[in-house]
């Protein structure tokens, strides 16, 4: 006797309800571009979804009334999965390297360590730069900030400051993150443009198909 109850509970927790699975009298409807349509009867919302060739997806089931949005649910799930995979991939590929400086560093050592920072940024890694203060040096934090700002300026063509200089115990730390390459940025822009054009064509195709089906089902005058 408990299985139906567990099944409904499982569906409520883990499954997004779409189309005819949304069993409420009315919903607060959101259009495909985020526009607020208002509170409409569920039947009307389903009709609007059919006319647009889209799905009606319940996005906020706990709201009163529940919020539902018109979207291509299959494409939404696919793109969400892609974004999640890409985020995991980027997280795995980006390491946090650490370079330590002394406050009174000579020019040769500075250039050597700057070279390490440059190499890490070129490899796509973030760099945690740490200045270690000794004795009375702790009373001169402005000197540490000056040194870190110099380094950030010297590698500004490769990365930017993600975490500004801050005191951490007897040290001062700053994090520099690599810039996205111009080729990556252009590739992302091209992909976004292609996705937008593909979505527009897909919606138009669905609308044409729905219109054709309605015309075929209409009785002859």
Automatic annotation (TrEMBL):
Keywords: Cytoplasm, Initiation factor, Protein biosynthesis. Residues 181-221 have a biased composition (Basic and acidic residues). It holds the Pfam family IF3_C. The lineage of its organism: Bacteria, Bacillati, Actinomycetota, Actinomycetes, Micrococcales. Residues 18-87 form the Translation initiation factor 3 N-terminal domain. The gene is infC. Belongs to the IF-3 family. GO terms for biological process: ribosome disassembly. IF-3 binds to the 30S ribosomal subunit and shifts the equilibrium between 70S ribosomes and their 50S and 30S subunits in favor of the free subunits, thus enhancing the availability of 30S subunits on which protein synthesis initiation begins. GO terms for cellular component: cytosol; membrane. InterPro entries: T_IF-3_C_sf, T_IF-3_N_sf, Translation_initiation_fac3_CS, Translation_initiation_fac_3, Translation_initiation_fac_3_C, Translation_initiation_fac_3_N. Gene3D superfamilies: Translation initiation factor 3 (IF-3), C-terminal domain, Translation initiation factor 3 (IF-3), N-terminal domain. Residues 177-221 are annotated as: Disordered. One of its GO terms (molecular function) is ribosome binding. Residues 95-179 form the Translation initiation factor 3 C-terminal domain. This is Translation initiation factor IF-3. Monomer. It is found in: Cytoplasm.
């Amino acid at each position: 006797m408990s299985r139906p109850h567990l099944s409904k509970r499982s569906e409520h927790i883990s499954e997004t309800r779409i189309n005819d699975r949304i069993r409420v009298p009315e919903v607060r409807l959101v259009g495909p571009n985020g526009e607020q349509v208002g509170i409409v009867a569920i039947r009307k919302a389903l009709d609007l979804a059919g006319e647009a060739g889209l799905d009606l997806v319940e996005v906020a089931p706990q709201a009163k009334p529940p919020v539902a949005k018109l979207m291509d649910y299959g494409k939404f799930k696919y793109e969400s999965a892609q974004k999640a995979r890409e985020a995991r991939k980027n997280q795995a590929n980006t390491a946090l390297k650490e370079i330590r400086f002394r406050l009174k560093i000579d020019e040769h050592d500075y250039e050597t360590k700057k070279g390490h920072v440059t190499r890490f940024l070129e490899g796509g890694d973030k760099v945690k730069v740490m200045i270690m203060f000794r004795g009375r040096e702790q009373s001169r934090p402005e000197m540490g900030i000056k040194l870190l700002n110099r380094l950030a300026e010297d590698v500004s063509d490769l990365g930017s400051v993600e975490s500004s200089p801050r005191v951490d115990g007897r040290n001062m730390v700053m994090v520099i993150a690599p810039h996205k390459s111009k080729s990556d940025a252009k590739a992302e822009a091209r992909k976004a443009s292609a996705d937008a054009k593909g979505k527009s064509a897909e919606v138009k195709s669905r609308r044409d198909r729905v219109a054709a089906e309605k015309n075929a089902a209409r009785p002859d005058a």
